[in-house]
Write a structure and sequence with these properties.
The complex is a heterodimer of chains A (315) and B (279). Chain A has 315 residues and is mostly helical. Chain A has a domain of 188 residues: MetI-like fold. In chain A, strand 1 and strand 2 form a beta hairpin. Chain B is mainly alpha-helical and 279 residues long. Chain B has a single domain, classed as MetI-like (MetI-like fold). The two termini of chain B are 25 Å apart. The chains are: A mainly alpha (315), B mainly alpha (279).
């Protein structure tokens, strides 16, 4: 059941000394070597593609390195970071990213919970609802983004026509609202499915008992369902928050970051591919990485989210 | 599932709710389909259903390599990356689910970190590394990062599936004289096949959907994938509004996914929820 999700990394190191005997038996050593051997290829690929480039990005971020001026590469210490952190563009992009993340994840959580309840409780057509809601999950984000772009283009789009031929993508907060809408549409099914899995762990008897004791539907939901689902909710929130924080596709198609809709990912991309500035681009990359680490840390330590998979060796 | 007597009113209520959910999920997709069948003049008419229907947008995109070559790249890169990811991930997941060895927690922590990694943080250094190694704008240049990002997903999903496989069979095989490796290939692998199919679907969907790296590590149709090519369709048509062709291309890359989802929905749901929620 869900109770064991709380015992996370504590379990593993505690077990290890007990297992470590003075001498490993032949079988245990063979098992250990096979374990390492089987994991080695995956570990090598993951390190080669992530750990090494991050290290390289840290080094790049300390250089003055513009692809247009390949001969002017020079070690400049933290001045790239100073340049980024003193730039209004960075803070603007960070604000937009945080705004999109907070609003879209909150709404997605509520809608995802409703969707999960519908999929859990509906009397008929459960399969059809689930299939239909998987469509936004499966669809290519960029393809869907073009759909939203044209829907909101005045003269072309049905949504623009519906709202008095407005052009929301040309003003900052309306454009952000459209971006958030596109994000919500795309990610609610994923949230709903994760929550549905959590919902199915809530014992039906408990609900019935509470009902007999006179609890209203709201009380049952907030006093029984939500607390029991807490691990599932927190994991889903962690995934969605980090995923939303790196938002790129929807903004790239909908506004290209114009009209003050740039996210931190768009800012990093522009610095690499428009300004061709590897030094500044890397500094932005590292700052985004630090933000993500902080978010993950807050979730895991602050809210007590069990990092998914950490209890994986509990059989 | 609760066998409570249902009133007609409840039935209507749920019926309406279901219709609303289905409509919200499908209307944006139907809008794209509608756009793709509109004639260039009808594009400027915001009505939801085309006044005149035409196949010309599809003929247009399927007759140029601007789109057909990226479509081929998407399929090829997606399949190869998925295959490698699933093979490597099932080896690691087998070790995680079945063997005792130091460093297991570290492996899981690392996979978790990568699953949540901000891809943009890798784009700058990888762009530079790929250019230095001559991998920029090649299939391999996309396959390697796709494998790396497919692995955490694969390791989670597969180790969840692998833990469900009955232990005794493996032990029985070992008693019968099989080595741990033989036990893996002969006994566990066939039992694990459903989980591996599910994982393959999820990884392929992720590769098919990926945009940022596809956009950053390619410069021509030699390696550009279909999602990234949409951005170029928009720039390519100079004298006509590219809306129709883009919508048609979007529908073409969406249809396989919808068929996929319809066909494998149970597996997809099982896979999505296996690693993430339950310990």
């Amino acid at each position: 059941m869900s109770t064991n999700t709380q015992t996370t990394t504590v379990g593993a190191p505690a077990e290890a000394p007990a297992r470590r005997k003075p001498q490993l038996s032949e079988g245990a050593r063979a098992e250990r070597n096979l374990g390492w051997l089987l994991c080695a290829p995956a570990v090598i690929v993951m390190i080669a593609v992530t750990a090494y480039p991050v290290g390289y990005a840290i080094w790049l971020s300390l250089q003055r390195y513009n692809l247009e001026l390949p001969n002017a590469v020079k070690f400049v210490g933290f001045s790239n970071y100073a340049a980024v952190l003193s730039s209004p563009y960075w803070w603007q992009a960070l604000w937009v990213t945080v705004l999109i993340t907070v609003v879209s994840v909150s709404i997605t959580l509520v809608l995802g919970m409703l969707l999960a309840l519908v999929m859990h409780r509906t009397l008929f057509g459960r399969g059809t609802v689930r299939t239909a809601s998987l469509v936004p999950y499966g669809i290519v984000t960029v393809a869907a983004a073009y759909g939203w772009l044209y829907a909101w283009t005045p003269g072309q789009g049905y949504l623009s026509a519906l709202f008095n031929y407005s052009a929301p993508l040309t003003s900052q907060y309306k454009a952000i609202a459209v971006i958030i809408l596109a994000e919500i549409w795309k990610t609610t099914p994923f949230m709903g499915l994760l929550l549905l899995a959590g919902l199915s762990l809530v014992p039906e008897d408990l609900q019935k008992a509470a009902k007999v004791d006179g609890a209203t539907a709201w009380q049952r939901f907030f006093r029984i369902t939500v607390p029991l689902m807490k691990p599932a909710i927190l994991v889903a929130l962690l995934f969605r928050t980090l995923d939303s924080f790196r938002i790129f596709d929807n903004i790239f198609i909908l506004t290209q970051g114009n009209n003050g809709t740039e996210s931190v990912s768009i800012l990093g991309w522009d610095n690499l591919f428009k300004a061709l500035n590897l030094g500044i681009g890397s500094a932005i990359s590292i700052l985004i990485f630090i933000c993500v680490v902080i978010i993950a840390f807050v979730f895991i330590k602050g809210f007590g989210t069990a990092a998914p998979g950490t209890d994986i060796d509990k059989r | 599932m609760a066998a409570v007597a249902t009133t007609p009113r409840q039935k209507t209520g749920w019926g309406v709710t279901n219709v609303v959910v289905i409509a919200l999920a499908l209307i944006p997709v139907l809008w794209m389909v509608s756009l793709s069948f509109k004639t260039p003049t009808a594009i400027l008419d915001p009505s939801f259903v085309p006044a005149q229907w035409t196949w010309s947008n599809y003929q247009n995109i399927l007759s140029t390599t601007t789109f057909t070559r990226p479509l081929l790249n998407s399929i090829g890169i997606g399949l190869i990356a998925t295959f490698i990811s699933v093979v490597l991930a099932s080896m690691a997941a087998y070790a995680v689910a079945r063997l005792r060895f130091p460093g297991k927690t570290l492996l899981i922590g690392m996979a978790l970190l990568i699953a949540m990694f901000p891809i943009i943080a890798l784009v700058t250094p990888l762009f530079s590394i790929e250019r230095a190694l001559g991998l920029f704008n090649t299939w391999i240049g996309l396959i390697i990062p796709y494998v790396a990002f497919g692995l955490p997903l694969g390791i989670y999903t597969l180790s969840a599936f692998f833990r469900e496989i009955p232990w005794e069979l493996e032990k029985a095989a070992k008693v019968d004289g099989a080595t741990p490796f033989q036990a893996f290939v002969r006994v566990i692998a066939p039992l694990a096949a459903p989980g591996m199919v599910t994982t393959a679907i999820l990884v392929f969907l992720a590769c098919w959907n990926e945009f940022l790296m596809a956009l950053s590590f390619t410069s021509t149709t030699a390696a550009r994938t279909a999602p990234a090519s949409l951005a170029y369709l928009s720039g390519s048509s100079q004298f006509t509004i590219p809306t129709g062709p883009i919508a048609a291309a979007a529908v073409v890359i969406t249809i396989p996914i919808i068929i996929f989802v319809l066909f494998f929905q149970r597996r997809i749901v099982a896979g999505l929820t296996s690693g993430a929620v339950k310990g």
